[in-house]
Design goal:
The chain has four helices and no strands. The protein starts with 30 loop residues before the first helix and ends with a helix.
């Protein structure tokens, strides 16, 4: 990421509450995305919160992307939006059981006459 004008953070960025084992070990981020977050995350967080003022065109565009995520162009902007979604968004929870039971008719549910009619079809 040496081709970017974005400032490195004053310290490495970690989120020990949502990603206690690290970004890459969470399974949500690649090693490259983890590197972007740890190097630039402190600056991106400062720009988002208003503690830092943008110093160049790339940082100004980042601030605009925060207001309108559809305009994200750079990998750095997309990684930050992904981080925000995973860290602050609702966590999806998938269950194995559904809320409604499907109408499954077993062999035991038929009378002898109905079962013979089903077998003939």
């Amino acid at each position: 990421m040496s081709d970017t004008l974005f400032r490195h953070g004053k310290k490495r960025f970690y989120d020990n509450t949502k990603f206690p084992r690290g970004f890459a070990k969470s399974g949500d981020f690649t090693l490259g995305e983890e590197e972007i977050l740890t190097l630039y995350g402190d600056t991106m967080q400062g720009l988002e919160s208003g503690l830092l003022e943008p110093e160049n065109a790339e940082e100004k565009h980042f601030v605009k992307v925060l207001a309108n995520p559809g305009k994200a162009k750079s990998k750095l902007e997309r990684v930050w939006l992904k981080y925000v979604q995973l860290a602050r968004g609702r966590k999806r929870f998938h269950t194995l059981n559904g809320r409604t039971k499907p109408d499954i008719i077993g062999v035991d549910d038929y009378s002898d006459e109905e079962a013979s009619l089903v077998e003939e079809d």
